[in-house]
Design brief:
- The protein is an all-alpha fold and 232 residues long.
- It has one domain.
- The longest helix has 34 residues.
- The chain is globular.
- The two termini are 31 Å apart.
- Keywords: Membrane, Transmembrane, Transmembrane helix.
- It holds the Pfam family DUF7530.
Length: 232
């Protein structure tokens, strides 16, 4: 989905690095300008962390796809990972759950998160940009879920050569690394137990499933001793 965005825009042909630079710059400049104009210092720090996570997610998604394609895995796995769009569904579910928390559950607390970041009377432009960035983060979370689950299914379903295993293991490690990077959001959620548990739980789940994928992947590598094949 992410790879197709710029390619679908007519007349636009830019490199991946430039696309990533544009993504980060537009979001970050917007965060800083709106935070300065409306006096939202706390929002600027949290927004910058979210922009870093979202942009890093774009980098990791591109790296994961390259490692997977380099391994030339079976078509069912490629179709499951790249053609199902289930990560979009998972991202939507995560975003709707987040909105439900922000607008139904959190306002009943002593200091709602939206108030902490956007003030008691949230400005319309800052609110719009905040929701856009939050959707971007939720989409990356959905992608992490699906990449890890699809990887475990792939490792359990197919056997690979040592060369394929190395490339797919790199993809799994990238998936795990991006999950861990999302812990950058934790400092802003320490007073919001539900969101804190959701983010930490998500990271632990992705790390656990991806670790299982790696163990199964190496254990089923072709021509490898099952007792010693966990060594890269």
């Amino acid at each position: 989905m992410y790879e197709s965005i710029f390619g679908a825009l007519p007349g636009i042909d830019i490199s991946e690095r430039l696309a990533l630079a544009i993504q980060f710059s537009l979001f970050e400049v917007g965060v800083l300008i709106l935070a300065w104009y409306y006096g939202l210092a706390d929002g600027a720090v949290a927004g910058t962390a979210a922009v870093v996570v979202a942009t890093a997610g774009s980098v990791e998604m591109l790296r994961i796809s390259k490692h997977v394609r380099r391994a030339d895995p079976p078509e069912p796995y490629r179709r499951l990972l790249f053609g199902s769009s289930i990560e979009v569904v998972l991202g939507v579910l995560a975003f709707v759950a987040l909105l439900t928390y922000l607008f139904v559950v959190d306002p009943r607390s002593a200091r709602p998160l939206a108030t902490s970041l956007l003030g008691p009377e949230p400005p319309l432009p800052a609110t719009y940009l905040t929701l856009l960035i939050l959707w971007d983060v939720c989409y990356r979370i959905g992608t992490g879920w699906w990449a890890s689950v699809a990887a475990l299914w792939r490792s359990a379903r197919f056997r690979f050569s040592p060369e394929q295993t190395r490339a797919l293991a790199r993809a799994d490690l990238e998936t795990m690394g991006f999950g861990l990077l999302q812990l950058l959001l934790v400092p802003f959620l320490v007073d919001h137990t539900v969101l804190l548990a959701a983010v930490v739980g998500h990271v632990l789940a992705v790390a656990t499933v991806t670790t299982l994928s790696l163990v199964v992947l190496y254990s089923r590598t072709e021509g490898t001793d099952p007792i010693t094949n966990l060594s890269p």
